[in-house]
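Budget justification aside, the reviewers requested a transparent look at the raw inputs and outputs of the sequence design task funded under Objective 1. We therefore reproduce one unedited record. The lines immediately below are the structure tokens for a 392-residue chain.
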């Protein structure tokens, strides 16, 4: 199968650029994750209009970007489809109609607060031949267009003299992120918070780069997605990137277009590296908890208990079937001669209760099991020739 890859054709003016593209989009200040658009999925065909450089006004500088495009539905079948077919409520009947998507992001740097940036990002997707509740065909501008929405508010504060920055993103699934909506009783907040610090060194004109980032997509209140009083009935599609309207979810060709950790998940990461030009030696540590929204729905039940004969206690739910990945990576990048870049990395991952499954091995109830924990080691190496490498 062939595709357009990271292709783009357009026209550039002094402040604006427009054209057609298949490139990935990344909106937001996050280094590891972002709530609306990342490079996790393949790029989709879209028209774009964006600023080339900040537009300066009396109150500050503005940057903006807008896209209108078309999404693809994967041709492959879910590996667990036969298992899901045995559970009627689990079946998902996808509408294979062509999906369209549009989005906009605006960033503002106030004139009175140097190095402070605030922004807004919003995206929606819908079926091309969408119909209203009355069965009438609706179009791009219809108010009652059935759609899935994702949006966020963004901030970034840079401290150039200290070589540091703080950044964050607050978002809402399936809703436009106007500021007053974050104070509602039924808010389903997701966020990204991070800090980056550079430490210049006198040694070889190099520096240390430290980044710490946290991502929270788990809905903290189970009442937002569970049938209270009937926990075995399943859950609402209220988690991040899920939708009862667009059954493919917020995806392109079967891959999430935003945060790679996925619905109901949380992530914490730390990276530390020594850098000199293109040369780099770094370590990366990450913890990812996968889809706690599903885990809480499937395994945690306050209404049904299990009698433990050995201890005489009643234990509710299966709180030991969480799925957590612990990842460590060592990275090396060298440029022995100009334009020739050598890269290598070694990654080790320990997946606890992989895919939320735990087979008892006789260990403590909440301890990892040797039968269902998974281990993965990867070694990667690449050689690149850069046409315009700039050596500093």
């Amino acid at each position: 199968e062939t595709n357009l890859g990271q292709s783009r054709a357009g026209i550039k003016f002094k402040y604006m650029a427009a054209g057609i593209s298949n490139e990935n989009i990344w909106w937001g200040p996050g280094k590891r994750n972002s709530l609306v658009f990342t490079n996790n999925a393949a790029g989709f065909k879209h028209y774009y209009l964006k600023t080339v450089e900040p537009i300066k006004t009396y109150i500050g500088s503005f940057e903006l970007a807008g896209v209108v495009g078309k999404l693809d539905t994967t041709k492959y079948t879910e590996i667990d489809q036969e298992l899901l077919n045995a559970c009627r409520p689990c079946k998902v009947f996808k509408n294979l109609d062509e999906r369209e998507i549009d989005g906009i992001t605006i960033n503002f740097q106030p004139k009175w607060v140097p190095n402070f940036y605030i922004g807004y990002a919003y995206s929606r997707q819908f079926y091309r031949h969408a119909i209203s509740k009355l069965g009438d065909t609706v179009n791009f501008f219809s108010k009652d267009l059935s759609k899935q929405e994702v949006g966020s508010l963004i901030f970034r504060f840079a401290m150039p003299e200290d070589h540091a920055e703080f950044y964050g993103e607050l978002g809402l699934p399936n809703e436009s992120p106007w500021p007053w909506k974050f104070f509602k009783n039924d808010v389903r907040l997701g966020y990204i918070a991070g800090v980056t610090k550079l430490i210049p060194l006198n040694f070889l004109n190099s520096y240390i780069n430290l980044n710490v980032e946290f991502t929270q997509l788990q809905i903290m209140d189970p009442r937002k997605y569970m049938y209270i009083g009937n926990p075995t009935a399943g859950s609402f599609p209220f988690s991040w990137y899920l939708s009862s309207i667009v059954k493919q979810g917020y995806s392109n060709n079967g891959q999430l277009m935003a945060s790679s950790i996925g619905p109901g998940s949380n992530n914490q990461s730390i990276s530390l590296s020594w850098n000199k030009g293109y040369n780099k030696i770094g370590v990366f540590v990450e913890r990812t908890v996968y889809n706690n929204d599903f885990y809480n729905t499937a395994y945690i039940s306050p209404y049904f208990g299990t009698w433990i004969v050995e201890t005489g206690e009643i234990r509710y739910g299966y709180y030991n079937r969480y799925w957590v990945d612990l990842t460590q990576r060592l990275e090396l990048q060298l440029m022995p001669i100009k334009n020739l870049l050598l890269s290598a990395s070694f990654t080790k991952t320990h997946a606890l209760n992989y895919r939320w499954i735990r087979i008892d091995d006789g260990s403590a109830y909440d301890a990892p099991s040797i039968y269902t924990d998974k281990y993965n080691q990867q070694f990667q190496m690449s050689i690149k020739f850069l046409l315009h490498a700039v050596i500093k």
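The longest helix spans residues 292-299. Helices lie at 81-85, 292-299. Computational costs for records of this kind are itemized in the attached budget.
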